[in-house]
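can u do me a favor
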């Protein structure tokens, strides 16, 4: 079983894992001569970044873990095979699991094509070619011509993911306490009627408030929340049975069915697809170096 975390609760985010280090972003990239600056980090402990923004667009993706990001009333969970595009100036916080290989790339707004002028965060499909190109651009020995060629190909292959996976928080004071309680403990199995009694309001009020605030029924919203949490647990190596029990499902088959309804595939197939992307992608553009 996954042990319950005794970490501090963080409003609008999962309960912090014990030992989480909270950091402030100090080295915020500023104006640059390049269109794209890429890098890689491996947090040795669970790490949380306090809310911040950048003057550049940011693309983040992970290997061997997950990244959770909070933007206003939405929680994004970034797992392998997907990235998250954060537009310049958007305030966001983030949290990475321990040992996750954390990649980021910053894009100068004045050198980024208008097609990528997203006003809101977007999930990005991290194809092997895109990862390879951004890994190539993290090198420090590229001449200007080689860098320019690689950057132009990045913009050719960078595309939003078909699935824009975000958990919308209610942002309604009548039901926010339910959302916070379930973020703290996704396995809480209280019924809609029990939640309503706990808040001292009618179950009809809870139903209407969830539908109006999130576009989902209470039951649907809780399923989406549990799948978000499942992505993190599964990426950390917990098996389906353990994750199912941790999230409050009576049987693994019930969890698998819920995961399929939300994600369009089973947990095994979802992570098999992510694993199909090589961990150390060969760089097809390395030959342009110094050409």
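np, heres the sequence
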């Amino acid at each position: 079983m996954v042990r319950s975390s005794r970490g501090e609760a963080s409003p609008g985010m999962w309960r912090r894992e014990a030992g989480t280090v909270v950091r402030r972003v100090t080295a915020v990239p500023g104006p640059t001569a390049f269109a794209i600056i890429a890098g890689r980090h491996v947090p040795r402990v669970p790490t949380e970044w306090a809310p911040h923004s950048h003057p550049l667009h940011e693309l983040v993706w992970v290997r061997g873990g997950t990244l959770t990001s909070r933007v206003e009333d939405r929680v994004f969970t970034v797992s392998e095979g997907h990235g998250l595009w954060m537009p310049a100036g958007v305030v966001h916080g983030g949290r990475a699991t321990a040992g996750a290989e954390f990649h980021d790339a910053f894009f100068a707004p004045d050198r980024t094509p208008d097609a990528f002028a997203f006003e809101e965060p977007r999930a990005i499909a991290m194809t092997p070619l895109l990862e390879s190109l951004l890994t190539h651009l993290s090198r420090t020995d590229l001449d200007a011509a080689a860098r320019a060629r690689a950057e132009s190909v990045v913009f050719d292959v960078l595309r939003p993911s078909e699935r824009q996976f975000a958990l919308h928080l209610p942002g309604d004071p009548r039901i926010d306490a339910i959302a916070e309680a379930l973020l703290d403990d996704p396995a809480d199995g209280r019924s809609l009627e029990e939640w309503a009694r706990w808040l001292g309001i009618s179950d009809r009020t809870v139903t209407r408030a969830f539908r109006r605030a999130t576009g989902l029924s209470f039951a649907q919203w809780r399923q989406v929340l549990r799948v978000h949490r499942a992505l993190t647990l599964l990426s950390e190596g917990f098996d389906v049975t353990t994750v199912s029990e941790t999230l409050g499902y009576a049987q693994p088959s019930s969890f698998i069915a819920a995961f399929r309804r939300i994600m369009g595939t089973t947990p095994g197939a979802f992570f098999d697809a992510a694993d199909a992307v090589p961990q150390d992608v060969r760089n097809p553009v390395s030959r342009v170096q110094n050409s």
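The longest helix spans residues 218-235. hope that helps!!
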